[in-house]
From TrEMBL:
It holds the Pfam family Phage_sheath_1. InterPro entries: Phage_sheath_subtilisin, Tail_sheath_C, Tail_sheath_structural. Gene3D superfamilies: 3.40.50.11780. Residues 603-706 form the Tail sheath protein C-terminal domain. Belongs to the myoviridae tail sheath protein family. Coiled coil: none annotated. This is Tail sheath protein C-terminal domain-containing protein. Residues 450-598 form the Tail sheath protein subtilisin-like domain. Transmembrane segments: none annotated. The lineage of its organism: Bacteria, Bacillati, Actinomycetota, Actinomycetes, Propionibacteriales. It comes from the Bacteria.
Length: 718
């Protein structure tokens, strides 16, 4: 972008080269199968065998139970990163916790799968952080109610003073009143309590109310912004919205400062009327108001009892509305938008709107263990310090929040809710579903662009293996590793290979199964090899590069193979494309002795594993590396930049030994020109780039020619 110049001088404009292409990872595997436990039917990132055991459990037995064995072999042989998909039809027990309307506030789901979760119950009760704090202010038992229900006889009146507000509690009934006077053993209210219930033996506590005041008399209007009041007990504070009135004339204003009986307004009163002899009162709280001035006991810190995210209940008469708190401090509570949904009059100091917070207590009872855990005063907003989503860390249930419109009071309704519907995992049935409908579980993996290897350990079903091959071929960014049938003869595995042959070469078949000592039992068992081989792929990629064939490498953790192969037996199946696992004399562990894909003789270009995977690496790296050039002007400058970027990347690949040639020009070429991109092509928004590379093929057959040479030095005896 050109620098915008105006004054004479030197201007600085920074520039930088195009971002280099970074090679993509080629060793992240995806494993699918059945497991002891863990997330169901979704890809979970696992980066160690210990983590696999923690999330999915250990080894299982049975014809379908090879997922753990495959993951163990992968990490043992050098794999570091895998996505694991546990296929399962299990269901956890669950219960919907209804809201105060007709919807669902929360859903409680058992952590444990199956019927065990049906023993769990969840109990919800209403609670209040504010009420708990106010109960500590007083909390005095009422010994007697006298004087037409205005005088409350108590042990001590010390926490209260005249003009403050108290809440009188008896059972579920709560009444807020102003204090007229106090004595050593009584509190006198300005307004009588209701006739029922009898508040004897109830409690008297502190209260939190919206500040209100009777209209105060204006003695003199010194100026249109300064008013002298009749006395300093007007009950008004800076920031208050007020109404000045004289006769039928009114003017709104906002108090900027208060000094005793003198009030300064932030702006001039409207009009020319003289408000001397009139009144000044708090303005009613209008719709959408987001600032509340409150009156609370001196010992209650507002920012502690009404923190951000609090669900605040405002009660005036028989009406209660719920709003969210944005911030609080001093004597001010700020509300989230859209603010109040009702109006509130503030001219009667005896009946101000009463405030409290709306939280809930959650009790989780585990019937199988006979134990319960209580989570008190939970908030419904993520800003709340005891938000349910961060505080409830139960090992018995987890809570979820349905994505639906919630009422203003979004707490779950009080009640006891048993969890129901737990279904045990039928692993054999789940395995069969994977075999019958593999695309259900493979298709979601397509969105994971970092996956480069796909394995279903022990799966030898033709339908599933064909689906694995098709999955990799359709995405062009991953490679499938296939297990041979157990106890397979050469004829059997040859027939199996015929079902997975594909000219594109996105899979490899390994034969036979390997013998492994089960770490859990110490017993030697026959395991499918694909998981171990995937680890060898990862290890080879990390130590040598993707261009190195993952062969002539020992299989860590393997003691032997199911059947020993001779050279004569391996020869025919190797030429087909079946990779043998063999033990040679003097070796303790089997080695991978083949590096061919399932392309076989259908397309010799893709018959080697490392060639196919090298091209996957090159294609994916270049594609992601030049993605930033999409929608750039399709001009010569872009062509040169792209050519330079791709050339630099391929030069490094050549230096790493992946491309054949004495110099870069012999190993690859990058072509972007007008022959490939004539005006008619460019007018369609297209840019064609042609890249040719000379890969290094594996030295699969080393032919040693040796014979008698008669051109050497003559040897004679004397």
């Amino acid at each position: 972008m050109a620098v915008q110049v105006s004054y004479p001088g030197v201007y600085i404009e920074e520039f930088g080269p195009a971002a280099p292409i970074e090679g993509v990872s080629t060793s992240t595997a995806a494993f699918l199968g059945v497991a002891e436990k863990g997330p169901r039917n979704t890809a979970t990132l696992i980066q160690s065998w210990d983590k696999f055991q923690e999330v999915f459990g250990g080894f299982l037995s049975g014809p379908e139970a090879w997922l753990a064995q495959g993951a163990y072999g992968f990490f043992l042989n050098g794999g570091t990163t895998a996505y694991v998909v546990r296929v399962s039809d299990a269901e956890e027990s669950a219960a919907d916790l209804p809201d105060r309307d007709t919807g669902v506030a929360l859903t409680a789901i058992a952590v444990a799968e199956g019927p065990a979760g049906d023993t769990v119950t969840v109990t919800v009760t209403d609670s209040s952080r504010v009420d708990d704090a106010l109960a500590k202010v007083g909390g005095l038992p009422i010994a007697e109610v006298k004087n037409a229900r205005k005088t409350l006889m108590v042990a001590t009146s010390a926490p209260f003073e005249a003009g403050s507000f108290v809440t009188v509690v008896k059972g579920a009934e709560r009444v807020t009143r102003r204090v007229a006077s106090v004595a050593a053993d009584s509190v006198v209210l300005t307004t009588a309590l209701p006739s029922t219930p009898d508040f004897t033996n109830g409690l008297i506590t502190g209260a939190l109310v919206v500040a209100s005041a009777a209209p105060a008399a204006i003695t003199t209007m010194t100026s249109r912004t300064v008013l002298a009041m009749s006395d300093a007990n007007h009950g008004l504070s800076p920031g208050d919205s007020v109404i000045a009135k004289v006769g039928t004339k009114e003017s709104p204003g906002t108090i900027q400062g208060v000094s005793g009986a003198t009030i300064t307004l932030a702006g001039a009163l409207i009009g020319t009327d003289d408000y001397t002899g009139g009144t000044l009162r708090l303005a009613d709280l209008p719709l959408g108001a987001r600032r509340l001035r409150v009156v609370s006991p001196a010992t209650v810190a507002l920012n502690q009892v009404v923190p951000p995210g609090t669900l605040l209940a405002i009660t005036a008469g028989a009406t209660t509305e719920y709003v969210r708190v944005a911030s609080s401090g001093g004597d001010i509570i700020a509300l989230d938008a859209p603010g109040l949904t009702s109006t509130y009059g503030l001219t009667d100091p005896e009946t101000p709107p009463v405030l409290t917070s709306a939280e809930f207590d959650l009790v989780v009872f585990d019937g199988s263990a006979g134990a319960s855990t209580t989570y008190p005063r939970l908030g419904v907003d993520s800003r709340h310090p005891t938000y349910w989503g961060t505080v409830v860390d139960s090992s018995v249930v987890r809570l979820t929040n349905p994505e639906e419109a919630a009422p203003a009071d979004s707490r779950p309704a009080p009640g006891t809710y048993p969890l129901v519907g737990g279904v045990a995992d039928d692993r054999a049935a789940s395995w069969q579903k994977l075999l019958n409908s593999p695309s259900t579980y493979l298709d979601p993996l397509g969105a994971r662009q970092d996956i480069s290897l796909v394995v279903v350990p022990g799966a030898t079903d033709p339908n599933l293996q064909s689906a694995l091959v098709g999955h990799c071929e359709s995405l062009y960014d991953r490679f499938a590793l296939l297990d041979s049938l157990p106890a397979a003869s050469i004829e059997t595995v040859t027939d199996q290979f015929a079902t997975v042959r594909s000219s594109k070469g996105f899979a490899a078949l390994y034969y036979p199964w390997i013998q492994v000592r089960n770490p859990a039992t110490g017993v030697a068992e026959l395991w499918p090899p694909a998981g171990h081989i995937a680890g060898i792929y990862a290890r080879t990629d990390q130590t040598r590069g993707v261009h190195k064939a993952p062969a002539n490498t020992n299989i860590r953790g393997s003691l032997g193979v199911e059947s020993l192969l001779s050279n004569a037996e391996q020869g025919p199946i190797n030429l087909l494309g079946i990779n043998a696992l063999r033990i040679f004399p003097g070796q303790a562990q089997p080695v991978v002795w083949g590096a061919r894909t399932t392309a076989g003789d259908l397309d010799r270009n893709w018959q080697y594993v490392n060639i196919r995977r090298l091209f996957v690496f090159l294609e994916q790296s270049i594609e992601r590396g030049i993605r930033g050039s999409v929608f750039e002007p399709n001009d010569l400058q872009l062509w040169q930049r792209l050519k330079r970027t791709i050339t630099n990347f391929l030069t490094q690949v050549w230096k790493d030994g992946a491309l054949f040639g004495a110099k870069p020009e012999e190993a690859f070429y990058v072509r972007i020109d007008e022959v490939l991109n004539p005006p008619s092509t460019r007018s369609l928004g297209r840019l064609y780039i042609e890249v040719g590379v000379v890969p290094t093929y594996p030295a699969e057959f080393i032919v040693l020619r040796i014979g008698i040479w008669d051109g050497g030095a003559e040897v004679s005896e004397s």
